[in-house]
From TrEMBL, chain A:
It comes from the Bacteria. This is Sugar ABC transporter permease. PROSITE patterns: ABC_TM1. Pfam families: BPD_transp_1. Keywords: Cell membrane, Membrane, Transmembrane, Transmembrane helix, Transport. One of its GO terms (cellular component) is plasma membrane. SUPFAM superfamilies: MetI-like (SSF161098). GO terms for biological process: transmembrane transport. It is found in: Cell membrane. InterPro entries: MetI-like, MetI-like_sf. Residues 72-262 form the ABC transmembrane type-1 domain. Its main location: membrane.
Length: 276, 318
């Protein structure tokens, strides 16, 4: 008995050691980044990482001398509008594929599916020519309009709508509910978990866009934060490590907070969306 | 929640279904307005996808058979010449080789480490939620933040790894300026970024393996590793397949980390497919060849996506 307890205590210690090692490996880049963001750049560039000259100076520099707030604001506008548009347009098109009967529906659906196989990266050349000829370059719209609708979102919501019991549709037909009312009053509330998942997914995808904004925006007024960081990093401040790390922290901390509080919900949503 | 909704709507069904059957009998067309609605509901998506997905797909294919001027306008039809030139060019084949090395290494490491983290986080001990939160942490990291963190770690004069090697009296490694090391650096950074998402998905999958299987194995005296390979592994194999394909596809499309960390260098060692397309099209104005490379990339990714669909189909049926 005593022996058993000893063994399980040793086991527990081993487990915590293992978990701690893994956690430290995952955390090292964060910790180094956050730590150096409090150090003066002169010391960092001399390789002095264990300094006690800790201050918020790098953050003050980042906030006052770089457009980092503007970048975050731009990203927020772009991601938020893209998210709203995708929820609206993906849900209406998924509705059409599930509840409407019209000629060529299946063919159209397969066309939607086929586009999911094609990476956006392989289509940037004509797309760049298109937005240039539409005079959309260097504006919020160039980062929103191409992503107003998404085949992936439509497919995901279609799968969710298919689970709505058929009787509900029949019942609403009898009650004389129009398609619009059935869509707004029954389908959307019924599938709200999938809608949240799509919202999170589309917001994050837009927030993390890198190549497209890099090709299409040239001014800080519209530049989203990913390319903003690239800009800060490649400009004169290349060696201003303290300020760069502070900017990275300013960008990543809000996402980490959201992730921390939304984790439980997000985990369920992801599993549902990914593995349904 | 679904049950609750069903309850809420059930009374409606009782009245409605018989009524509908009656209406159908007398030939009432309940789908009369569908066409107008289809137009309204699908129109916006169809318009956007036509302009930004269907058209560019055909246009890219078309351009891949032409030489172009610096504005991207096709000038001379060259048939399959662009393809032949690429597939016989040693720099393109090197880029393809680098991409495949990167993709395979990233996928394997992401898979193994993702399962390891998920397995470790499945222990039911005090404070485990703290570790779960940390393990999923990199999901909140965007590509440019990851690049900044890792650029500092790999920095040859001030970075952390340099301090470690100096402390251990090992020679300094110029991580980002030596071909093999640069590739390794990019792989490590990508895997780190992937881990948060992969961990969450595997963790979910492990939770869904029925507990009684392990209890039965425990009674039979099966070892932990036996349990892993004969229970866990087969039970989560659909998830393993799903994650492999997702990771493969995403790695083929890698761009941001490459751009920020190595810009394709040194000596083109990390010049992966998408980065090369970007260079050829937008830096050298070589749109014809870049389109051809886009077509090749699209074919590779389509194949993997098809496999993913097949998997989804399977999942739906059982």
């Amino acid at each position: 008995m005593l022996n058993n307890m000893k063994k399980s205590k040793k086991d527990l210690l081993l487990q915590y050691t293992g978990l701690t090692i893994l956690a430290v490996i995952i955390l090292i880049p964060f910790l180094i980044g956050f730590w150096t963001s409090f150090l003066p750049t002169e010391e960092i560039s001399k390789g002095i990482l264990w300094s006690n000259h800790i201050s918020l100076n790098n953050y003050i520099t980042a906030f006052t001398q770089t457009p980092i707030i503007r970048y975050l604001f731009n990203s927020f506008i772009i991601s938020f509008l893209t998210m709203i548009a995708q929820i609206l347009f993906c849900s209406t098109s998924a509705y059409a594929f599930v509840f409407l009967k019209f000629k060529g529906r299946d063919l159209l659906f397969y066309a939607f599916l086929a586009t999911m196989m094609l990476p956006f990266e392989a289509e940037v050349i004509p797309n760049f020519a298109t937005v240039r000829s539409l005079n959309l370059l260097n504006h919020y719209s160039v980062m929103i309009i191409p992503f107003l609708a998404s085949a992936f979102g439509t497919f995901m919501l279609r799968q969710a709508f298919l689970q709505i019991p058929g009787e509900l549709k029949e019942a609403s037909d009898i009650e004389g509910l129009s398609h619009w009312k059935f869509y707004a009053k029954i389908v959307l509330p019924y599938s709200r978990i999938s809608l949240y998942t799509l919202a999170a997914y589309s917001f994050l995808t837009s927030w993390n866009q890198y190549l497209w904004p890099m090709l299409t925006t040239f001014s800080d007024n519209f530049r989203p934060v990913q390319d903003g960081l690239r800009q800060l990093q490649s400009q004169e401040s290349f060696n201003n490590w303290g300020m760069i790390q502070a900017s990275a922290a300013i960008v990543v901390i809000p996402t980490l907070i959201v992730l921390f509080f939304g984790q439980h919900f997000f985990k369920n949503g992801l599993n549902e969306g990914a593995l349904k | 929640m679904e049950e609750q909704l069903n309850k809420q709507f059930k009374p409606l069904n009782k009245i409605a279904i018989p009524k509908l059957q009656k209406l159908k009998k007398i030939g009432y067309d309940v789908n009369a307005k569908d066409k107008i609605y289809a137009f309204l509901f699908l129109g916006p998506s169809l318009l956007i996808l036509s302009i930004f997905v269907f058209y560019p797909m055909l246009r890219t294919l078309y351009l891949s058979f032409f030489l172009t001027n610096t504005l991207g306008k096709p000038t001379v039809f060259v048939g399959f010449n662009n393809y032949v030139n690429l597939l016989t060019s040693s720099t393109y084949l090197n880029s393809l080789k680098a991409t495949i090395t990167y993709v395979i290494a990233v996928s394997m490491l992401t898979l193994v480490l993702g399962i390891l983290l998920a397995q470790a986080a499945s222990k039911k001990i005090a404070g485990i939620n703290f570790f779960r939160t940390i393990f999923s942490g990199t999901m909140g990291v965007s590509v440019s933040v990851a690049a900044i963190f890792w650029l500092f770690i790999f920095n040859p004069s001030v970075g952390l790894l340099d301090q470690v090697t100096t402390f251990l009296h090992l020679p300094t490694i110029n991580w980002l300026t030596q071909p093999g090391w640069a590739m390794l650096a990019v792989i490590i950074s990508t895997v780190w970024m992937n881990l948060g998402f992969t961990f969450l998905i595997f963790f979910g999958a492990l939770q869904s393996v029925p507990k009684f299987l392990y209890e039965a194995a425990e009674i039979e005296g099966a070892s932990k590793s036996y349990q892993f390979f004969h229970i866990t592994f087969p039970m989560i194999s659909p998830t393993i397949f799903f994650i492999s394909i997702i990771t493969l596809i995403e790695s083929f499309k890698s761009f941001g980390l490459i751009d920020l960390m190595t810009a394709g260098g040194p000596d083109n060692a990390t010049n992966l497919m998408v980065y090369r397309i970007y260079q050829d099209a937008f830096l050298s104005g070589n749109y014809g060849s870049a389109s051809t490379q886009s077509v090749i990339l699209a074919i590779i990714i389509s194949l993997f996506t098809l496999m993913q669909f097949k998997l989804l189909e399977k999942k739906v049926t059982y």
